[in-house]
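Changelog-adjacent note: as of this version, every example in the card shows the full chain rather than a window. The one below runs 467 residues end to end.
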Amino acid sequence: MKGKIETINYEWLTKPTGDPFADTGGYVIQYLWEHRYPDKDIDWLIEYVTKIYVNKWEGKLHTFFLNSKITQPAFKGDKKISETVKYFKELILEKDYVEDGCCRISGQKAKLFSGGRDNSIMSGSGTFINFHHGFDTGILLSKEILIRLHFVPLGSMLLSGKVALLKSNNEEISRFYVEENIKYNLKNIATGIKEGVGKSEFKNPANTIFDFVRKVIEQKKYIDKNASLTLYHFTNFGASPEIELYKLPATVFGFYSFCHKINYKADWQNFTYSHYYNSKNKGAIYNPASNNFEIEKKGKKENVEFETYKIWSNTIYNKLLFGKSIVPQFLKWYKNGKKLNFDIIRIYQQNIRNMKKQTIDKILELADFLVNDRSDDEIKKIITKLNKSSKAHELRRFLVKLTAENYNKGNENPLITVKDYTDYLFSDVANAGEITDVLLIAIYQKMHKLNKKIELELEDENINEQN
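Full-length structure tokens:
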């Protein structure tokens, strides 16, 4: 039945545009045609979702549209439906268009209509007309784009009271996110839930994004080493519309995928799960054997299972999302005698922290020199000295002494060459503090392989703190 309305360009009802809102609406329309109502035309689908918004969600679209036919208080009940259907019928018939031109989102040549806060998302209108070229009354859009925007709520979810849309440079991943939301929203409708757009079980963007990435990884056909994600967290409500963007670059997406390979997943899970924290449960300690947190209350231990603590904040996810180093957490993990495959640190340093491969290779070589054929007491003194070498000149002095020691032992090959020193250890982009931390990690890794048990001053066992 699709294609019978002559004024509609059906290609532009679903074709990707790069706009997160228009594409979300397009994915919803495509899903409904492919999986629900293949014989229904777009006018029927418009009425279908309108009835959901009014009858099932009681018109709760205020975070999307301001004073639309559905959200304005002047219309009640069925009037909201009839006025909305009337508006779109007139739109399809191309009544009251502003001008002929190119749509600001699709670029198609068409009759253009005004898109304001009542029928589009995060656009200017009324007192916000300065958002648009020539102080137009709204962004000039084709009817196909305005129709798509009407479907956005069904493909969305709410995160802490605001709408959360996710867009990827990989179209399959973007579509997967929207389809998951459609299924969730339709399931809620089928069970009689009338609170509007489905709410995320999480409370913050980091957990939301990384839980979605986990689902993408499980759907192996979607894995893309170059995939990046942007979470649009917004509200178009009342006099204070606002939007925040959270970007997960391809480097982090690829690293997270790497950590979920079979050889690394158990180590990575123990590491990340230990870094959940909750202000109401500051004494909680992760038990990798049970995959639970243990809290002591009134002399008794209580277990907190994953389904409960997964909504707590997570230090590692937060740092990965906001571009902060997790090397201090790696080091603290090793200091506490925990296991973590060094390949994880290597890939993290190379792909995210931009550390050269040769730098890491040299660090591992130095770790061998510092641990092999040394007494436990000597290794302990070396670790103590490195812990105090937080500044570049202190690390330089330490390494120069190592070079002299290597020479005095009569070794033919220098421990550190001029090229090592200038290009890999103390280049313009090198971070002396991070090199020190990775060297300490490599030393702990080497000790673990040699099964060396040295009495060291350990960090607190509870490491699931925020910083």
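Structural remarks: Residues 332 and 459 are 7 Å apart (CA to CA).
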